[in-house]
Amino acid sequence: MESKAKFLGHPIHPMLVVFPLGLFITSLIFDLIALLTNEPALAIASFYMIGAGVLGGLLAAVFGLIDWLAIPTGTRAKVIGLLHGLGNVLLIGFFIFSWLLRRDAPQAPEAAALILSLLGVALGTLTAWLGGELVYRLAVGVDRDANLNAPDLLAERPAFTDGALEPHVDAVKSEEYDSTTT
After folding, report:
1. What is the pLDDT of residue 146?
2. What are phi and psi of 7, to 5 degrees?
3. pLDDT digits (tens, 9 = 90+) for 90-104
4. Together in a domain, 128 and 175
């Protein structure tokens, strides 16, 4: 099933999710280092990473919802997509509350803020796995013409010319490709 929200031919949602996930994980790492080293600047950096991660996560959620609405009802993908989306809403909620608890003293977050961040990262691991299940196992968001010799989306030209791949890819003949090789 092809993604409904694309930019330059690629699905937007997976392009955006890496930023909040990376920010949330890095914020937790900074918090842990800050605890070990008593370095308040790292806790402050974590506070700002969480804020940016929440904004990025909300933006990614908009495009995830657009794609989820296009999944046919009654499919395994619809159920997994729902779990993925609800898990991510909860994850964002954990980080919003963690950020709010830090707001008055970002250099010294209380234990509850750190626990919420830890829970958020743990949940993010599960929801990322569910997202991978959607894409890699159920082909949600995958272009219908996807294959190992698919044409360049921006070139707007076929991948093959007279039986050969375009020069920028390879000089291998298309009939020499064995789909059973890995």
Report:
1. 78
2. -135, 120
3. 999 999 999 999 999
4. no
